[in-house]
Write a structure and sequence with these properties.
The structure is a homodimer. Chain A is an all-alpha fold. Chain A has 10 helices and no strands.
Chain lengths: ~260, ~260
Amino acid sequence: MLRTRILTAAVLLPAVLAAVVFSPNWFFTLFIAVLGVFGLYEIAAMTGTLKLVALPLYAVVGGVPLFGLLYGGDAGWVVPTIVIVLMLVLIARIAAAGRDGAPSVPALAFTGAAYVGVLFPYFAMLRNQPHGVNWVIAVVLLAVASDTGAYFVGRQFGRRKLAEKVSPNKTVEGAVGGMIATVVAGVILSPLFAPTWHAGAVIFFSAMISLLAQLGDLACSALKRAAGVKDSGWIFPGHGGLLDRTCSLVFAMVFTYYWSR
Amino acid sequence: MLRTRILTAAVLLPAVLAAVVFSPNWFFTLFIAVLGVFGLYEIAAMTGTLKLVALPLYAVVGGVPLFGLLYGGDAGWVVPTIVIVLMLVLIARIAAAGRDGAPSVPALAFTGAAYVGVLFPYFAMLRNQPHGVNWVIAVVLLAVASDTGAYFVGRQFGRRKLAEKVSPNKTVEGAVGGMIATVVAGVILSPLFAPTWHAGAVIFFSAMISLLAQLGDLACSALKRAAGVKDSGWIFPGHGGLLDRTCSLVFAMVFTYYWSR
């Protein structure tokens, strides 16, 4: 399984990297539109709402913001904030009550569609601005640092469960370790994305990315747990679905987009 | 399964297209190096030679030409021709004798390693020359026309088996249909890749691409059949492996490389 993961990443990362680094803005926007539609498909498949009757919901709650933001750009911070709060409410509900207290299928489909439709465009909005490629690569590397730090520190020192009912393997110690690893990585990588910043800004930004990456991860776990699935999909052998691979990035990209302006 | 195929293609094609169209030459060369190494991995996995003892074979027969050609460029047409003949001998042996008459495992590993190592670099060599992107896209579209034409004509009118022991579903009628479809597509697409050619050159070139795409397909089928596997791998859900997706392109790319010079 680990071998499958690594081989898949080795083959697909260069192609994705080419799309991020070398493609013109219009092409990258189309690429994110395709990923967004596929993300909506994954939400529908995992919540069992891949039905004609649910199409209006996905079109209105998912498709309209997706294409609206990709075509029209920034629509302020209110709507994305609402969506992020919605995801946090979902985490909180499951953390408090477990799967039995999870929202109904329509509520899950609505939440998932809004999550993809409102937040996915930020990948393109962040990347398609000046120095956007650097920003995207910085966020991805910081999220990797956060995940890796949390994994190893948690495995070594993890005692207290972070949110047992949402994601049983995560620990408070791991979360702190992830944050420390991200700050260290942020200081090392700061020439890439923050050549003129004060040290305090680098530390604050890195810590925020780690926090949002971990919240993003928990949000996906909450959604998957409520839907009763282990992976969001199957498109990346060994990794699961598209949402599995992007959930630690989405909140962080939204934050970085507003931060960078 | 068809849905899986289509969704995988929809998500991955834009990323691969970005690599082909927008990346600088050095990056595309590295990309093909990665694909080549992964292709050697698939050969080893499917022939059951994913063992330390076989590593020298893959390094010498696969790795040396792969990196040599990617780094040094064109080394004449003799070696690729030998490799293509080797593949045709493999087809012929299996067509004559079935799986029982297939070469031994070492012979298969050698043939597969040479196939990937010598021929994969032509993707980069063709693409990284002037108008190379147009050439690559033209060959891909013509190969798609060939496959599609062969499939539908074969399904409708197929009577005589083409090479029953190598690939039981292929028919002579399908092969002819694929060739006609490719010539039609070539005439339609000729402004893309052949704006100044005579009609005869367009027809000859298109027919050659169809012939080589079909031989490439048979070569892969022969290799897979001899190895006793159905797919070369698992990296593209619904499509199989990397070699499954590239086998109709490899011979055609080599031909187009020399034709274009």
